[in-house]
Every structure is written in C-alpha cells, then in structure tokens.
Design goal:
By secondary structure, this protein is an all-alpha fold. 62% of the residues lie in helices and 0% in strands. It has helices at residues 9-20, 29-41, 49-55, 75-92, 104-109, 115-128, 155-164, 170-183, 187-200, 205-217, 221-235, 238-250, 254-266, 272-285.
Amino acid sequence: AYGKSHPDSSSMYYLKAKELDLLRFRAPEAFNKTIVELAEKYNCSAVNMADAFLAFSGENVVGNALLTEHVHPNVAGYFVMADAFYEALRKTNLLGDWSHAIERDEAFQDIPVTLIDSLQGAMIVENLKKSWPFDLSKAGSVHRKQYFTRSIPGYEQLKALDLFNKEVAWDEVMSQSYDWYEQRGNYEQCLRILQSMLLISYGQTHLYYYAGEMCMKMEDAPKAVYYFGKYHQMEQSPLAACKLAEAMIANNRKQDARRLLEEAVAKGTQEQVVTNLLKRLTEATE
C-alpha cells in the first residue's frame, strides 16, 4: 500500500511513528516508493491502498472501523482492499466485458461471513489485545487465553464460543446452525452459511443446490438462477435442469427455460419431471 501524507498534525505524527517503529508491522515509505517506481518502470497498475483506506476513514487516520488491531484489516477492511482491486481492474478493462459489474453497496451486503464467524473473530481479537505488545506489562510472559463466560446470551454467541475454545469443528457448527436457522425460517442466514462453505468447498455440488433453494424461498430469482446455473453446470442431471428452469421462469426468462429443457430432452433424458415441466411451459407460452 502507498499513499500521500496529509498536512494535519495527527497524520504527520502517525506517519513518523510508523517510520520509527522497531516492530516492522507496517511497510516503511521507502518500500512503497519502490513499488510505485517499479510499477511505472514496467507499465503495471499500482493500486493506492492507503488512499483507499483513508477514503473510508474519518479524520485521515485509519482506525478500528477497518482494522482488527493495529495493522490487519477486519472484514470491512478486506472489503475495501478487494473493492480497490476490483475498481482498478474495471478501469483498465483487463477482463473485458463489465456490463454486469457489481456495485460497491450490493457487494458489501453480500459478504459471505456469518454472524457466528464475526463473533468468534471479535473474541480472538479481544484475547489478542490482552497480550504484548498491546499490553506492555505482559512483555516476556506467556499469554494465556482469555476466558469468556457461557452466560453470554444468544445462540450465535454460544456457537462462537464453541469455535473460540475449539470445542466443536467449524463445519459441524455451520451444519448445526444451518438447521437451526432453517427451522426458524431465517433463509438469509442459511444462504450466508452456504456461501461461506462454498469459499472453502468449491467442488461440493450439493451446496449450490441448497443455495439455489434458499434463494427461491427468499424469492430472489436472479440469485437462484446463478446458484442453480452452477449446480447444472457441475451436475448435468435432469433435476439440475428442472431446478434451473424453474428459477429462470421465476426470473421471467421462460424462453431460456424452455430451451434448457428442450436441450435436456434432446440429450436423451426421459425423466418425467423434465417432460412434464416442458409440457406445462410450452402450453403456457403458446
């Protein structure tokens, strides 16, 4: 990251402290200068991450809103980083067509991080700040993990505590929580769990199926088309074709749904569910 120094005293002293810091957690300005020079020399894009962070920070100082402690970004901070790279790619047109670009606010609302993971992260950071160098009195001592009482109310807090204490595996907590949310009709949190699981388990086809189902229950047809489209791409089954077609119909794409089902029949499928849906769709469009 690199950026411009600001004339106000707080930013000036912050920058000076960073340069004199014996614990090299932050890159010195000499490093940032070298990055800019190399980018210019080899005609590469250099993303000004410091200015990106400052744009989302008050009083020209990056603080707790974007950082977990003093240097590592939190979820919002990592989003700012991702968005800065995303916008740089869009401006340089490196990836071609950007007609379906996702705007910042929509992307931020769709960050695949569950409330349970966020609470566990808060516990980890709070525990971290009880040790050196955050607490200078703890220099030279072995840090002991902080104890969080189980009297904290709420399902998510208790599950986060299980993760923090490493009493239950993450995938087991997510599975339990998925069932808990589904029983209560909280399909948005179910989808958030599936999205987070897909980040580490891309090849698990059934996750796309369940994500599509959640989107249909939420009456979010465009997202259902996306997830069932991935499911159909990986599965290539009659069920996948029907699910994608149903999502397309809900998204007012009946002609696309009809072509999809006709292709399934042309490939030799004799599944009654496909032919029945194709028949109903044909009758409805005639």
